Amino acid sequence: MLEIEEYGTYYLRAIATDNEEAVSDSALLVITVEDIGTAVDQISKTRVSLFPNPAKDRVVFSVDGLKYCERMHVEIRDVSGKLVFKSEYETSSRAIIPLSNLVSGAYSFSAEICNAMISETLIINR
User: Taking residues 4-18, what's their average pLDDT?
Assistant: First the structure.
């Protein structure tokens, strides 16, 4: 059994033998791993925070614990569903999101990370 736990290239030699254990054929298999696990696996082990909430002039969105995702896409929509903010951030950093151009009220905050969507209600209260 081959256990793959990291990205990379793995080499596996397969050998076919007959009943007398004489080698009848062999092959070298090359396995390249570009993605391990599912987004749900990765997100379930991740700490996500959106603070302060309610917010005034800015909100901080942070993601801790992701190993394989480098970018996150953030959107904020008003109650009618209109997109009022959209940006992309590195998951290794905290995203400081300016809210100064938005009026007080409830908004839908969403972030796409590792093909998984995280949603939260964001309240702006000035």
Answer: 66
